[in-house]
Design a protein that fits this description.
31% strand, Nucleotidyltransferase, domain 5, 5-stranded mixed sheet, alpha/beta, 6-stranded mixed sheet, 328 residues, 7 helices
Length: 328
């Protein structure tokens, strides 16, 4: 489900996630079918240094961001020279678009997608990085999940990595790689309908996945705490039944709740379960990867690991969950 680049070279050994409040780095090694998290490090950011947004300055203190990236990366052993870069969902406009006929050439498909999403982007499409992943087929048509981000905004984050001595070769957003993490670590997630609910301090995102492909994406600025997600989840479930031909979710996966008070997060989880009538489980990548003994797998660490595992193991997710365009 990754959006911003195609695996044209071996995956990087680490991933860097940047949010408004912190920099998180995760390193992973693969040996055959064995996959191990070899390191994890977080570094706080000063207030106001980074304010993720779709159409405005994001990096207000480049030196502070570069220093935080360097501090977190320096704690990795060995220190990675390349890394995937994960940004908050709020830096990209994400749309599902449908075409009755798809051009056979990738270049023609790119132009068609750009023409379709330019109307929804609050900036010139010529100034954007555009990427997509093939979605579900319906009645002879083909859906695409399309990510659009301002090029200069993405580059402002990339420059911070460069200044810290790390090349950001892959750029993507958090929630799509939380989905990738589920698909890459749990084979049963490739079939049936299920929902990802991602709550962050400054936004929330819901993704519905059908047979390994996204059929619904909705992200909004955070209006409240996790227990307020019940209404949004209920509205989404009604849309799922009325417009997407859905019957029931096989699972609900929760991510990001460690950012909130545990009692409030638990209340939100129970509310979601009551609205949907299905158990909601926290995203736990330990189903498919192991952690070195020195890594304590508390809720905050598991939340930090998930999107990194998703982007680093995305080649293990179903083919429909991989990005189709190189936009570096």
């Amino acid at each position: 489900m990754n959006g911003m680049s195609l695996l044209t070279s071996p995956p990087p050994p680490a991933a860097i996630e940047i949010s408004a409040g912190r920099v998180n780095v995760v390193a992973l090694s693969s040996h055959g079918s064995s996959r191990t998290i070899t390191g994890q490090s977080s570094e706080p950011l000063p207030d106001g240094a980074v304010t993720p947004a779709l159409n405005g300055p994001n990096v207000h203190d480049a030196a502070a961001l570069a220093a935080a990236v360097k501090a977190a990366v320096d704690r990795m052993s060995p220190r990675p020279k390349r890394a995937a870069l994960l940004l908050p969902d709020t830096v990209a406009k994400v749309s599902l678009v449908r075409f009755d006929k798809v051009p056979p050439k990738v270049q023609d498909l790119e132009q068609l997608i750009r023409w379709q999403v330019r109307k929804a982007a609050p900036f010139r499409i010529e100034d954007a990085q555009v990427s997509w992943v093939e979605g579900a087929a319906a009645e002879g048509a083909r859906d695409y999940l399309v990510l659009v981000a301002r090029r200069d905004i993405v580059q402002s984050y990339e420059r911070a990595c460069d200044a810290a001595g790390v090349q950001a070769g892959i750029v993507d957003i958090v929630s799509t790689n939380q989905v990738n993490a589920v698909l890459a670590t749990d084979a049963s997630a490739a079939s049936g309908d299920w929902m990802l609910v991602h709550t962050a301090p400054d936004y929330s995102t819901i993704i519905i996945v059908r047979n390994g492909r996204a059929i619904f994406f909705r992200s909004r600025p955070a209006d409240g705490l996790p227990q307020d997600m019940g209404d949004l989840v209920h509205q989404t479930a009604m849309y799922y039944e009325d417009r997407l031909g859905g019957t029931a979710f096989s699972r609900v996966v929760l991510a990001g709740s460690s950012s909130f008070d545990p009692a409030l997060a638990d209340r939100g989880r129970r509310q979601i379960e009551e609205r949907l009538g299905v158990k909601a489980d926290l995203l736990d990548v330990r189903k498919g990867v192991t952690l070195r003994d020195r890594i304590a797998a508390g809720p905050e660490v598991l939340d930090a690991l998930a999107p990194a595992v998703g982007v680093l193991l995305r080649d293990l997710a179903p083919a429909a969950a991989r990005g189709r365009e190189q936009v570096a």
